[in-house]
Amino acid sequence: MASYRNENIKDRVILLDGADLEDCQVENCELLYEGGALPRMVRCTFDNSSFRFGGSAERTVFFLVNLIANGQGGEVVVEQIFKDIRRMAASVKKESTRGEP
User: Do 42 and 13 fall into the same domain?
Assistant: First the structure.
């Protein structure tokens, strides 16, 4: 599990599974989440960085894509999932991303 405190992280691939980032500036990085332990990201900024999903997280994304592409009413279902995610996020402390229900 990687741990970063008060760091400027640049031009790297960061594996997010179980990672702990606090007060970091992340720039020009690729952040990879593979569906393992949730990362903790507190007071971090992300500039010109991208998030990518692998493993079981990627399969979940593809499941949602297939719901939209192939299922009748799938787009409505996926939009409701995102509405629920937004609602849950609003109830989680803003300083942490460990938002398991």
Answer: yes
Rg, the chain, Cα only: 15
Report the domain count for the chain. Answer: 2
Beta sheet of 50-53, edge-to-edge order: 13-15, 30-33, 50-53
Residue 25 domain boundaries: 1-53
H helical segments located in the chain: 55-70, 74-91
Its pTM stands at: 0.80
> Which tens digit of pLDDT belongs to each residue from 31-87?
999 999 999 999 999 999 999 999 999 999 999 999 999 878 999 999 999 999 999
Q: Which residues contact 20 (CB under 8 A, 6 or more apart)?
A: 1, 2, 3, 4, 39, 40
Instruction: Count CB atoms within 10 A of the CB of residue 60.
Output: 12
